[in-house]
Input
Amino acid sequence: MHEFSISSEIAKTVLDTAEENKGIRVLSILLEIGEMTLLSVEQVKFWVQELLKGSIAEGAEINIKTIRVRIQCEFCQHQGRPFFDQQEGVGHLGPYCCPKCKSFQVKVKKGGGCTLRQIRMVR
Amino acid sequence: MNSTKGDMMKVVKPKGPEIFDIELEKDLLAKNRNLAKENRKRFDHLKITAIDVMGSIGSGKTSLIKALLKKLNMGESVGVIAGDLTTTIDAERIREEGARVIQINTGKECHLDAHLVGQAIERMSLSGIDILFIENVGNLICPGEFPLGAHKRIVVTSTTEGPYTLIKHPYIFRQADVIVLNKIDLAKAMKLNPSQLEKDSRKINPQAPFIRTNAIKGTGIPEILRSLKFKT
Output
């Protein structure tokens, strides 16, 4: 259910930004959601649409781009996609490690965030 | 309200006579992170060590905090923020140990966030407190995404949850400074091999110690306090 609180923040930011820029209608928004967040894209889309109902952004197209995860190995310093242990977990939610040295001490450099990137509006 | 304050924002040339694209870089998880930093500053200023206790529903977070309080035996110089959806049951149970307690009811939210903790520490008298435990809402998913500003994070699971808890929820266990397997006395009845969970723990988070506890009896409690660098 934490999609609800993030979606509330998204809806509020969209409406505040539209108001600041004298928008009369919001046509679309672009969100970037990292693979490594625990956010379900489908649920975020649903809640943002619901929360925008009755506002100038009702019916706006909600575009969501998934940002692939990139890691830096703290052991060998390798940077890139992690290696996912598919046998033990599903996709990116399973354990992951450095593809080179197989160390599990890796830091997520990209793909751990949720960013509102663009709002298209009419004014 | 200026929601985009501090974020990069520029108005891109119009696509048509009246359609505009507003480009921005609003990190929606940053707000919580920044509030968490504020909480941390507050704790540091007051020389308080804050510990976020996360874990599944019924894993024994409250019992564990009670056992830690009993062992620390520091009375009112330990504070506890108890997070729960609607009840004050946990706060009352903790109060029995003589600690200073404040309850946060999240209502429908499945996790504590830095804002709620910030409000709780505003309302709570923190003078004379050395250690503050923050008991999160029982959940192995959402709290992982919301740092609170605590210095250390404990994640509690228990033998009665079965053998796959760690491997199913690596995200939250990756954030832990200490991983606790509670109700160790029930492992046999549950036909559960704690060593397998320990192996999973090493794989997901090699730095965090994996501690087996029985919070009711106090087993493993000194190990937790030692790994948190508290004197026992």
About this structure: The longest strand of chain B covers residues 19-27. The beta strands of chain B are 9-12, 19-27, 49-55, 78-84, 100-105, 131-135, 152-158, 178-182, 210-212. Chain B has a mean pLDDT of 89.
